[in-house]
Design a protein that fits this description.
With 665 residues, the protein is of the alpha+beta class. It is built from 10 helices and 36 strands. Strands 2, 13, 14, 15, 16, 18, 19 and 21 form an 8-stranded antiparallel sheet that branches. A hairpin with a 7-residue loop joins strand 24 and strand 25. The radius of gyration is 27 Å and the shape is globular.
């Protein structure tokens, strides 16, 4: 017995002797300014379903995202400047479909920014384009052909935010993940300044660090035009040239990972190591909230999930609470402590950073020990490394030395049991003689702070999930003009609520993009919008359709299997009418395979009720109650969304949407 006791004592002594010490000291100076943690709505239409939530649940979701000291408590909201084109999970409407069409009632990003500001007046706002209306490039296909026009277009968006919503835009980008243009960047800076928008900082170039940084070093005017060098998915590393610019460095888009525990681990690791490894002072999650249909690209790659506006059900996921470990204990304007004096790697794997208010000297330490397999992000590949449980001793020096106690919050990710715990308050850590020791298990996040008042916000009675409500109908009369009908998700073109010329139809959905935009994806040439569920096997719907001009076509569809950037290749059952007096049924959006066709007295300016009933391998189609065909669909598509659309970029109207039946695959 005595031998066992002696062995235990020796073992403890051995572990204690192996403890590593880390100095936290502000007397050697502060590191880089902290610019905040953010989320990105758009790129594209990633918040589409959120706006249709019942008000009670919608407000709760917004609290989890933006309310200080409640949930994610985000510091930055980045939004897409809509460009009328597909930008990942859908299209977002431009404020200027044409050069003479300036309208700030379109889209939901205005609403989202306003709601974020209501909860946190200090939140920073950042706009970036994925696509541009064709007129911006004068149909050249590039936003850089006429840089003054493009700069004016972006400036109007910034001015409109202020004029109509009292929103101050703090940052603006160039063209998401596409080649930048030096002349355009310099022109944008000049146009912003000449419009009195000196405060708006340019982030460039929302791609990689190297090229823009090298150009900035070689071009003084370009360097003066850019305030922040922003890169996407940098893998926690920046670039020597980026550091040489002496600018703030951001991971201006990062994460993009399924929001389970591994996604939370990814987020925890990069929030710390983007600074530790790359001197990046802001990290922005794509996306803010996964609020788009299952079956669209990158499903659930958001900080939380809200995909059922009809039920009100939503899920607060781990990345919300990982964010809280930093955001509830800091704010933009704090400073990181320098590397090896408050930021660095832990000897046995993991990392730590210290954030300090330079005025009050309040400070916060965030520690993460995420293992390799439990913190893989979607991109880039993560090199192998090892993390072990460890004891760490922190030595507080400088102004930190006077502290005697630190509040403590923990997240422990349990991948074996599946019982992870997030953002739980623990007993305070005692600091004695300017130091403390802490045990750090693998896959943990610990925040230690001189600050108090944080909370793990919650709401009771989140509604249970439900399937899409069927039968479902919408005559579009309850919506404001220029808004979007609930539950519809545009995949190319833009479908807006408009007043019908025929008063008997009241409001209608109208496809309003008349020229193919400057695209980010390889957009479909046929504007269309989807609704429902990608696993609908049987679908019966009826929609009234009016073609506005000659030589145009429109369709209703069932079993549409594709959206997002690959939507041009969508297959399904598409029932078309055309103003030349014919109809047909195709198996694809691109209209390459006709399954049936016939003639009908179809004219522009008249309404027609189209009915499609697709079940198993048969689709029955009717016009104004007259059955035109019962088509064998050759089993090409088993299931998919319902949809409406047009044969090209031209105007058409849709009304009286009825979904009678939908069964799941």
């Amino acid at each position: 017995m005595r031998g066992s006791t002696l062995l235990a004592v020796l073992l403890v002594a051995t572990i204690a002797a192996a403890d590593e010490s880390y100095i936290l000291d502000d007397s050697v100076g502060l590191g880089r300014r902290f610019d905040g943690i953010g989320g990105l709505s758009g790129g594209g239409a990633t918040s589409r379903l959120l706006v249709s939530y019942p008000q009670v649940q919608r407000n709760q979701i917004l609290d989890f995202l933006f309310k200080p000291k409640f949930g994610a408590s985000l510091d930055i909201l980045k939004v897409e400047i809509g460009g009328d084109a597909q930008s990942t999970d859908g299209t977002e409407s431009s404020h200027m479909h044409t050069a003479t069409d300036e309208n700030y009632q379109r889209g939901y990003e205005w609403w989202l920014m306003t709601e974020a500001k209501k909860r946190n007046p200090d939140i920073k706002l950042y706009g970036l384009s994925w696509a541009y209306p064709a007129w911006v490039g004068q149909n050249s296909g590039s936003p850089y052909t006429y840089p003054e026009i493009t700069a004016g277009y972006i400036t109007k968006w910034i001015q409109g935010a202020k004029k109509y919503y009292n929103l101050t835009i703090d940052y603006v980008g160039i063209w998401n993940e596409r080649p930048y243009n030096k002349t355009y960047i310099k022109t944008l800076r000049k146009v912003l300044d000449s419009s009195g928008l000196y405060h708006v900082e340019i982030v460039a170039a929302d791609g990689s660090f190297g090229p823009i940084s090298n150009d900035m070093i070689a071009d003084k005017e370009l360097n003066a035009s850019v305030s922040i060098v922003g890169a996407h998915y940098p893998g926690t590393h920046s670039d020597p040239a980026a550091l040489s610019t002496k600018k703030q460095l951001w991971a201006s888009e990062d994460y993009s990972t399924f929001n389970d525990d591994v996604g939370a681990g990814c987020w925890a690791r990069i929030l710390n190591q983007n600074y530790v490894n790359g001197n990046m002072t802001s990290t922005i999650s794509w996306n803010l909230i996964a609020s788009y249909y299952n079956g669209l690209p990158f499903f659930r790659d958001g900080l939380m999930t809200a995909i059922e506006p009809w039920s009100g059900h939503y899920e607060v996921m781990g990345p919300i609470w990982i964010s809280a470990h930093t955001t509830q204990f800091s704010q933009p304007g704090y400073y990181y402590l320098k590397h090896n004096s408050g930021a660095g790697h832990l000897e046995n794997g993991g990392s730590y950073v210290t954030l300090m208010d330079s005025q009050t000297k309040e400070f916060t330490i965030v520690i993460e020990t995420m293992s390799h397999d439990h913190s893989k992000c979607i991109r880039p590949p993560l090199p192998p490394y090892t993390v072990r449980e460890q004891n760490a001793t922190f030595l507080l020096q400088g102004s930190l030395a006077k502290v005697t106690q630190l509040s403590r919050w923990n997240s422990y990710l349990s991948f074996d049991s599946g019982n992870s715990s997030y953002f739980e308050k623990d007993i305070p850590v005692k600091v004695e003689g300017g130091q403390f020791n802490i045990f750090l298990p693998v896959d943990s996040v610990v925040t230690l702070s001189t600050l108090s008042g944080q909370q793990k916000g919650s709401y009771d009675n989140i509604p249970q999930p439900k399937v899409f409500p069927v039968p479902y109908n919408d005559n579009f009369n309850s919506y404001p003009i220029y808004s979007e009908a609930k539950y519809f998700a545009d995949q190319s073109g833009v479908f807006e609520i408009a007043k019908a010329e025929d008063a008997s139809h009241g409001n209608v959905m109208r496809q309003v993009v008349s020229t193919r935009p400057i695209t980010w994806c390889d957009d479909a040439n046929q504007p269309f919008s989807i609704i429902g569920n990608v696993t609908w096997q049987t679908t019966h719907l009826k929609v009234s359709v009016m073609l506005e001009t000659a030589t145009t076509c429109a369709f209703v569809a069932a079993k549409v299997d594709e959206g997002g950037c690959h939507s041009a290749s969508a297959t399904g059952v598409f029932f078309w009418i055309c103003s030349e007096g014919y109809w047909n049924v195709t198996s694809d959006l691109a209209h390459t395979e006709t399954l049936s066709h016939g003639s009908y007295d179809i004219k522009a300016g008249q309404w027609y009720a189209l009915d499609i009933y697709a079940k198993d391998d048969i689709a029955t189609v009717s016009i104004d109650g007259h059955e035109e065909a019962s088509v064998y669909t050759k089993s090409k598509v088993k299931a998919g969304y319902a949809g409406i659309g047009t044969g090209g970029y031209y105007y058409a109207q849709f009304d009286d949407f009825y979904l009678f039946e939908a069964t799941y695959f």
